[in-house]
Backbone:
């Protein structure tokens, strides 16, 4: 059955508009950094070797000096391959993953210190956050044709998947005038083992309309079962807080 993710999107939109109506302050900005994934094709949690460019645009709605709501749309690329590990199954399987991820996320952030540019608050703080994401990923799987996997089935295919995930993470930020610079690590917990497009077992038949001859019988294990995949963003945020409009009445300044 095809799932409809219009409802999560509408929930994010409703929360953003509702919180914005009660906001004390608002900020606009962007994110730039890297994205990576953890799953069967990257089980050893390599980050530097597999991270790819990512960026996003964001909108912060400040509720008070401790809490604020963030809406962020992110785009990232993901890459991984079986030859980066020393696991026998991975080396034999000899597959590589290339994908792009579109992510729309609503998050509630908590500042550990009262934060702002007014009196009695700090201009820096660490923070944590949690929220809800709707994402689309198009994993492209292909064989690497490495010598160590000469007997492995050769295949190449792509798919598209839209699901929900739970984002959470940590960060640190500092105000510089009207700008706020931050560094954050943003994790996404998915609820599927198909984020990377990897099947549970090898099968015979057609892939993308082309016949495929496998060296293994149907049912041979291809990936770890029931192990949901993860994807993450890590990088810098830059937000701009517009200066308050000056009151035209001198007596109220």
Residues:
């Amino acid at each position: 059955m095809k799932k409809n993710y219009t409802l999560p999107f509408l929930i994010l939109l409703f929360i953003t508009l509702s919180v914005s109506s009660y906001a004390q302050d608002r900020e606009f900005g962007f994110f730039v950094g890297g994205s990576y994934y953890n799953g069967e094709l990257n089980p050893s949690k390599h980050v530097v070797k597999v991270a790819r460019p990512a960026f996003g645009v964001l909108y912060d709605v400040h509720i008070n000096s401790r809490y604020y709501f963030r809406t962020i749309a992110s785009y990232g690329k993901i890459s991984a391959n079986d030859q980066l590990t020393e696991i026998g199954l991975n080396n034999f399987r000899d597959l590589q993953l290339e994908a792009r991820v579109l992510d729309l996320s609503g998050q509630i952030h908590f500042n550990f210190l009262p934060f702002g540019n007014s009196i009695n608050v700090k201009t820096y703080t660490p923070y944590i956050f949690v929220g809800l994401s709707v994402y689309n990923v198009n994993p492209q799987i292909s064989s690497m044709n490495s010598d160590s996997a000469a007997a492995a089935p050769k295949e190449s295919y792509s798919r598209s998947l839209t699901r929900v995930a739970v984002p959470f993470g940590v960060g640190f930020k500092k105000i510089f005038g009207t700008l706020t610079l931050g560094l954050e690590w943003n994790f996404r917990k998915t609820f599927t083992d198909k984020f990377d497009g990897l099947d549970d077992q090898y099968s015979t038949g057609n892939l993308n309309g082309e016949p495929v001859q496998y060296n293994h019988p149907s049912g041979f294990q291809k990936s770890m079962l029931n192990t949901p995949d993860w994807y993450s963003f890590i990088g810098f945020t830059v937000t701009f807080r517009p200066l308050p409009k000056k009151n035209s009445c001198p007596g109220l300044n």
Summary: The CA atoms of residues 94 and 188 lie 26 Å apart. The chain has one domain: 6-252. DSSP finds two helices and twelve strands in the chain.
